[in-house]
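Bit of a strange request maybe. I'm writing a small parser for structure token strings and I need a real example to test against, not something I typed by hand. Could someone generate the tokens for this chain?
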Amino acid sequence: MLSQSMVTDEKFFLNRRKFLGLGAGALALGASYEAQALFGLGGSNDIPLNWKEDPSMSLYPVAKNPLFNVFLDEVTAEEEAARYNNFYEFGSHKEIFQAAQELKIRPWTVEVSGEVGNPKIWDIDELLSGMDLEERIYRHRCVEAWSMVVPWTGFGLRQLMEKSDVLSSAKYVKFTSFMDPKTAPGQRQSWYPWPYVEGLTIEEAAHELTFMVTGVYGHPLPKQHGAPLRLATPWKYGFKSSKSIDKIEFTSERPVSFWEQIQPKEYGFWANVNPGVPHPRWPQNMERVLGKDTYRPTEMFNGYGEMVAGLYTNLEDQMLYR
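Reply from user aminoacidic:
Good idea to test on real output. This should exercise your parser:
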């Protein structure tokens, strides 16, 4: 079962209200996102937004969580977010949205295993219907120095941890994405260590920000976003947020992530956003805002520092931010 150490520290919980800045001013910003929802969804005809035939369509839209609803005036246009993606299983270029449509998302199962009292192989639709879904607007910062703001739908990983009865022996969680080289041409490239693997500490996994994503912009995930289940950890660089997950393993040993295997000097386990630590090949203090042709200063922990800084005390000797 979850230990007391996994519960968000009260001071960070209380401070988040200052961070979130809720109030009439923030709520008034909702008009821009709602207008986009009414008139902007769907994009141009060449952008595959294949969610309309998703079996989970009836679950959407869901209630918005007001605690994570403060970037309403900054939400990236859906067409922009749908067109520009990293999904190396389908290619190394950004416009992989068409190739990703080959991904078969039904049937789909998610295996929860390892240091848990209740291991289970979930049918994806059983999993979705058994969770309390909500919408959260998160910032997303790519290690390649571009960013977007996205209204994700999903559930806190903490919910799944509780249902799985995570044991005290679990120190980490390992996420494994699908493996299907017949469908995903990128997986035929033997120089990559497929399947895609990522990991978090158990404390990071149980944090209230850690979100299992099932939808976006008020509907199920399009395939290029990592349907039917992906991770969102908004204070970390985007490569930590695994797409199209089919295995979640709670383990006593720290997993070695996909990019960490390829180039550990450039992509570490922690990958917390830090403008003060440049990537070996480019700076990280500024970011290009997707779809706006503008730049903004990158914030420590991507702006979520008051909520997550407490996870990293007494870790000064670790490569926390790269």
